Amino acid sequence: MQEAHTPYQGHQFSDYVLLGKDGKPLAVVEAKKTSRDAAIGREQAKQYFQPKGKELKPQLPLPVKLFGLRLDKIESALTIGNTAIVERETVKLRKQIAELPQTSVVIKEAASVLHCLEEENFWLSLSSQKIE
Fold it and tell me: How far is CA 96 from CA 1, 50, 93, 100, 115, in A?
């Protein structure tokens, strides 16, 4: 006897999904027994977000992209000697950095590196090489 066909045939289901106010998924939790390797659950959870047959390309978070674009704009303005753009974009960039969530684990880990941004001399000749 053949099993009944369902619209979900070939699909996997997550154990838990955290939905936003708009009903769209924000996070997936794939529960596994403690006797199973956690890497199996991580890989399974990744599969929920990866279309079959397609490889996802790594993407930069939007704030990082915007930071890079602003830095490029500053470097271009420095090249042509447009100090007004340099000053305006530097103010915006410093504001963007100041608004970083100080409780973020990533920000806390980078605290020693980010400390140099508080020094006024850092901002005098800004470039992407200096930021790296």
Answer: 63, 31, 5, 7, 15
- Compute the Cα dihedral for 117, 121, 123, 125 and give only its sign: negative
Q: By three-state DSSP, how is residue 81 classified?
A: coil
Burial of 3-37, coded b for 16+ CB within 10 Å and e otherwise, reads: eeeeeeeeeeebeeeeeeeeeeeeebebeeeeeee
On whether the CB atoms of residues 75 and 127 are closer than 8 A, the answer is yes
Residues 6+ apart with CB under 8 A from 42: 30
Query: What is the model's pTM?
Result: 0.48
Question: Residue 16 pairs with which residues in a beta bridge?
Answer: 29
Residue with tokens 């924000």: 26
Return the H-helix or E-strand segment holding 18: strand 16-19
Residue the block writes with tokens 């070939």: 10
Q: Mark out the alpha helices in 15-61 (DSSP H runs).
A: 38-49
The 10s digit of each residue's pLDDT in 56-114 is 567 767 777 888 888 888 888 888 888 899 889 888 888 888 888 888 877 788 777 77
